[in-house]
Amino acid sequence: MKLTPINAQMSLKKYKLGVIGLGEGRSIISAALESDRWELVNVCDLNEDLCKERAREFGLTRYTLKYDDLLNDPEIEVISIYTPDQLHGLHIRQALEAGKHVIVTKPLLTSLAEAHDLLDALKQAPGKHIFVGQSSRFFEPMIHQRNDFLSGKHGEVDTVETYYISDSRWFLEKDWSRQKGFSWMYNFMIHAVDLAKWYLPGIEEVFAYGHSSATNKEYGLKVPDTMRCLMKDAEGRIATVAGSYTKPALRQIDPGISCTLRGTLGTTRSVYSHLKYYTKFTGEKMATHSYEEKEPYYFRFEGKSHHAGEYQNYIEYFAKCLDKGETPKPDLHEGLHTIAIMEAIEKSIDSGQPVQVNDILKEHSLNLQRLQ
Ligand SMILES: NC(=O)c1ccc[n+]([C@@H]2O[C@H](COP(=O)([O-])OP(=O)(O)OC[C@H]3O[C@@H](n4cnc5c(N)ncnc54)[C@H](O)[C@@H]3O)[C@@H](O)[C@H]2O)c1
After folding, report:
1. Ligand 1 atom nearest to CA at 133
2. How far apart (Å, rounded) are the C-alpha atoms in residues 21 and 43?
3. What atom of ligand 1 comes closest to residue 85's alpha carbon?
4. Which CATH number fits domain 137-291+332-371: 3.30.360.10, 1.20.1070.10, 3.40.630.10, 3.40.50.620?
5. Sequential DSSP letters for 41-83
6. pLDDT tens-place string over residues 309-338
7. Cα(25) to centroid of ligand 1, in Å?
8. What's the rounded Cα separation, in Å, for the pair 337 and 367?
9. What is the pTM of this model?
């Protein structure tokens, strides 16, 4: 029997989700509840007050304080991880060992030291996926820019400028931001690094400066809170990446996160804070595309410091990949390559020298070809 579109729609499988970490996990709860491709089975946090708050907010009938309850629940097919950065590696491994697919928020890891453990765990879980939730790829202006890039409208792109600058001093109030393993680079600047790498997947050399401000030091942090990086790929194409996080921001005009592509046929810029996409293609006038009407979809709670719309876009993309038996991207291998670029940035800041990404991979006995 031939399916009509409506029947085809009705026959789509709903995937069953468990969520751990209910701070930013709030956004994936909203995304799953709003999506016709997902069923939220259970949520978990160590903090019972927060569990109760989320249960009240979303009308949930269940929550648990024990991750084991998600891991041991045969109904749950996918676990989505929003715990502190330093715990991602452990929580991913446990989910894979329990036979679940994994969606992990950025950063995948805070060091390549855990890379082999994850590669081994994935090998031991045939058919399972680790998807890295690089949310900026799934934001409205960035989606339009990517579509134009893929359709060749930019011509040959040889310059990428990415940027993530925000006044994120509020983040220093979280305990884990002051614990070993936290870094502004891994938590914040990874958005800008990932966008640069999305367009220049073969970045092979990095040169970076970083500085730790007095504000940073007041909180006992040594890792830089301002970074400026230059990167190049094997063909000499260049990316610049900028990040600063503890200074007052020019809120009305700062883009938050942005990505500029300069190509032989067109230059475009996607801008987070203003939901805008600027284009200038050969033969066309410069245009400003505004997606402000989508604000309620992307920003469902107070302020703009959460990502429910992006998460809804990425879980629906994830569901489609599972339907088709495709690997959702960025996957573990791509995610590890991004972490290698991050380690190259750190090493360049420390040494004052350019650093080859391949040397970082070799130090960890990882193979670049396998990771790209
Ligand atoms: N754009 C994005 O994709 C985006 C935005 C914000 C945060 N994040 C990521 O989300 C993660 C969490 O950030 P946040 O701002 O929500 O932090 P948060 O501190 O507000 O929330 C983390 C939660 O994890 C819980 N938790 C810690 N250990 C646990 C354990 N073992 N079992 C169960 N729960 C545990 C804590 O109780 C806390 O409620 C970080 O990795 C961050 O990078 C991503």
Report:
1. 3
2. 8
3. 41
4. 3.30.360.10
5. EEEE-S-HHHHHHHHHHHT-S--BS-HHHHHT-TT--EEEE-S
6. 999 999 999 999 999 999 999 999 999 999
7. 7
8. 10
9. 0.95
